[in-house]
# Entry
Amino acid sequence: MQIHPDDLLLIVDVQNDFCPGGALAVAEGDAVVPVINRLSVRFDHVVLTQDWHPPGHSSFATSRPGSAPFQTIAMPYGPQTLWPDHCVQGTEGAAFHPKLSTDRAELVIRKGFRSAIDSYSAFYENDRTTPTGLAGYLRERGLKRIFMAGLATDYCVHYSALDARRLGFETVVVEAGCRAIDLSGSLAAAREGMAAAGVRVVNDLD
# Structure
C-alpha cells in the first residue's frame, strides 16, 4: 500500500504493562514491536499514545473493595471494566517497550490521567465527549489518513479507530502490528464494529 506525505502512523499503548510480564499483559504483546518499528520508517508523521493513570485510578479493581479485575461496573459515563493496576504514572510499567522505536514521534498523547474516568481512545475519554486534542492537532497539521497499530486490538485500537472514523478521518488498522485481549468475545465484536464504521483492516502494508 502506498503511503502519502499526509498519512499518519498512530502507535497505540505499546507499554511494558501491556507486554508479557506486565500487569495487564496482552498475549504476544511484544510481538508488535518489530512490526511497528518496520512500519514507522515508512511514515513522515508518527504519533504515540501512552496510558498514564494516577495511583488509585477509578478503573482499578483495587480502588473498589470487594471488586475483582475484569468485573464490569456502572460508572456515570457508562459500563466500565475494572482492571488490575497498570500503567501508573512514572512507573516502569507505564514506560514504552524498551525496543520500540520512538525517536521519530512528533507527539505523545497521554490518556487516562483523569482519576474519575478511564480512557481507551486516542481521541476521547470514555465519556465520549472529553477530547484529548489529537483531532485538532491532526487537522492543523493537514494529516488526513490514519494508520493504527498497537495494543490492544479490541480496546484502545478499536475505540481509537471508531473515533477516527466518527471524526471524518480515513482509517486503516494494521493487524500484524496489533494483538488483542479478547475478553468474552471482545475481538470479534471489535472487528464487527470497525467494519460497520468503515475502518479498513489489513494484515500488513507489504
In short: The longest strand covers residues 170-179. The first helix runs from residue 32 to 40.
